[in-house]
Batch of 2 targets.
Target 1
Amino acid sequence: MSKTNKIIYWGSTVWLALGLTSAGIVQLIKMEEEVEVIMQLAYPTYILTLLGIWKLLAVIAILLPKLPLLKEWAYAGIFFNMTGALYSHLIHSEGAIDLFGATLLAPILLLVLTGVSWYYRPADRKLTSKLNPFVK
């Protein structure tokens, strides 16, 4: 792996981990603003606990060495979570969509960071053919 790719991988992964950790903590402590947003989206507030735990577990999975299958699941979970957040905000938006508002910018940024981190991950963090029955 080239030095440039390592910098891209670790830069995107650290920013992704920081973003997910802060979002997970905010959801676990049920910060007032987060509760308001989740209620505006017509979700029950108890979903915040589950989302917060999942985000923190995903951070642990992507930062731990090895465990490529767990990392694949974590990246997929982050992707599903962020696309779900985007979809929810788009469906429940009133009037014009503010692309640079916090409601859409955060999931878009985390989606981009997820894709970059996943794409540039080192070989020891990828599934190999012996671990993945779908790779020949």
Target 2
Amino acid sequence: MADLAPVAASVVAADGAVTKAEHLAGAAIAAGQWLYMDTANSNVMKLAKASGTLLEATVYGMALCSAALNQPVLVATAGDLDFGCVLTVGQVYILSANAGNICPVADLAASSYCSIVGVGTVADNLQIKIHNSGVEKP
């Protein structure tokens, strides 16, 4: 299966979603992309990827808005959101090897870190439950 491709304009936090303001983008970010906090670079938000370093695979949350470099970005860290694309109910989703994306757990590539981001609860809702395992698939 392929990475999920949310429509940035359709990504919306549902009631109860936790958002964190005051984060700066350390790269160009689109709504719906998954982020890590670059603790080695002033704690800016950058695109997370399972195929990078352990830091790059440590998911902080998902961008609720698009932002250019050094602009503020809102980040959802828990709760429910309309992800802007079709999800499979009951499917566990993980960080993809491709920066900023997620995919079904069965698509975890070799040499990638397993970072769980959430579960599809209905066809367009993702319940964010981030678990950064720190485990790299052999």
